[in-house]
Amino acid sequence: MGFQQGLSGLNASSKALDTIGNNIANANTVGYKGGATQFADVFAASLNGAGAAPIGLGARVAGVLQQFTQGNISVTNNPLDVAINGGGFFQMDDLQGGTLYSRNGQFQLDKNGFIVNAQGLQLKGIMAVDGVVAQGSPSVPLRLFDPSQSLTGMPQATGASVGATGVQANLNLDARVAAPVTTPFNYADPTSYNQSTAVTTYDSLGSPHTYSMYFVKTAANAWDVYSTVTNPTGASPGFTNLGPVGSLTFNTLGQITSPPLAVSMTPADLGYAGAIAPMSFNLSFAGSTQFGSPFAVNNLLQDGYAAGSLAGFKIGSDGTVLGNYTNGQTQVIGQAILATFRNPQGLQPLGNGVWAQTPDSGTSIVGTPGSSGQFGVFQSAAVEDANIDLTAELVSMITQQRVYQANAQTIKTMDSILQTLVNLR
Questions:
Q1: Which residues are registered as beta bridge partners of 153?
Q2: Looking at 53-57, 92-96, 303-307, 371-375, which range is the least confident one?
Q3: Cis before residue 237, ω within 30 degrees of 0?
Q4: Residue 12 main-chain phi, psi, to 5 deg
Q5: Buried (b) or exposed (e) across 306-320, using 16+ Cβ within 10 A?
Q6: pLDDT of 148-201, one tens digit each?
Q7: Which of 60, 249, 266, 309 lies 20 to 30 Å (CA to CA) from residue 123?
Q8: Closest Cα partner for 58 from 409, 407, 413, 414?
Q9: 86/70 Cα distance (integer angstroms)
Q10: Distance between CA atoms of residues 157 and 302, nearest Å
Q11: If DSSP codes are grouped into helix, strand and coil, which group holds residue 32?
Q12: What's CA 294's distance to the chain center, in Å?
């Protein structure tokens, strides 16, 4: 009788419908990976082996295979939301010293400054020390507000940038003017110089100082540069006359031919004797001209900045967590690290969008986003949708419903045959 075969088909179809129903129920679950039911046929075994034309005993569910295909990326308004575009899993600390894995990048900050998901699991990565991430270090929970570290962005003294840019002044000195009628130069007497301009510079503690430059024409195509510095309120002295800085020369086409000037100021000049470092920087006039047109300042830049307060965060495509400061600067706070597996289908789903490592999945392989083909890249302020095709799932549901009905019809037919046998006289 075919009751066993029909019953096994009903059970298998029922499990397949369960899987489809679960996929549809999680169509809006961020980072969800759909399942696919796999079937296997069943045959009876005998001591003498199978017959020439064996009849099977039905079907069974061989397993439910997780489908780790890429889901669509949806943009959000949360800068801490992260979508993985490609392979890899977020490493999540389970708060008991272990690691779980997730594709759900809906993150926020908890009261202690850790990046956590909705269940309170902490995102793991490598914390930066003085803005530098030591690659290869063990992964730890990323903490954006660490009470052991300053939340104030470090200032930078003018001239202390990596390229030692200093002050860059691009201006036009009027070639038509004559030498000043008053000599020698006196910053307080405008008749002793031709033109002047000023730029805000910063000392080693980030205090602003107004650095003023005065231009005195000495001969055709030749100018002397003098400078003063006005210090912040509370500094002593509040003003320092620095005197001559150097000379500028131009060719007959009005193009500058002199090299950058060197400026040096002592802590006493800056009004904070013994409290700050000396300030020195290059004063470059590259691109400046001496044409027969009015004095003009085309560009005036410097590479220093004051201290800043932490204003927000953003996560780069390589997992780098950057802190944004009110002084316009950014600093690396840490870097999220991804994990991959040789057999991701072997991961154990635990619910809430997380998986656990198993012997079947193999040991996790960690790396930075985008470092190789097996690791995807991050997309900030976005999340990965479930990889569920609702149209395909609904078609599969119809198919399994028909298979279920067909197996039920098999049992009904077997019952009819059995009824005929019972009624034989």
A1: 308
A2: 53-57
A3: yes
A4: -65, -45
A5: bbbebeebebbeebb
A6: 666 678 899 999 999 999 999 999 999 999 999 999 999 999 999 999 999 999
A7: 309
A8: 407
A9: 7
A10: 10
A11: coil
A12: 47
| Six-digit token string for 259 | 């090299």
- Exposed, middle or buried: residue 325 (CB in 10 Å: 0-12, 13-18, 19+)? buried
Beta bridge partners of 296: 172
Contact 324, 166 (CB under 8 A): no
CA distance 197 to 199: 7
Residue 280 to residue 301: CA distance in whole angstroms: 15
* Bridge partners (DSSP) listed for residue 74: 383
Distance CA 188, CA 366 (A): 65
Q: What is the mean pLDDT of residues 296-300?
A: 96
Decide: residue 130, CB within 10 A, 0-12 exposed, 13-18 middle, 19+ buried.
exposed
Angle at the Cα of 318 from the Cα atoms of 345 and 122, rounded to 5 degrees: 65
**Gyration radius of the chain over CA positions:** 37
Token pair listed for 253: 């086409």
Q: How far apart are CA 263 and CA 242, in angstroms?
A: 9
To the nearest 10°, report the CA torsion of 359, 360, 362, 363.
-40
Q: Which tokens go with 195?
A: 């033109």
Contacts of residue 44, defined as CB under 8 A and 6 or more positions apart, other chains included, come to 54, 56, 57
| 8 Å CB contact between 237 and 207 | no
At which residue do the structure tokens 């193009």 appear? Answer: 255
Dihedral angle sign, alpha carbons of residues 358, 359, 361, 365: positive
Tokens of residue 124, six digits: 């793991």
**At 257, which amino acid appears?**
T
pTM for this predicted structure: 0.75
Residue type, 348: Q
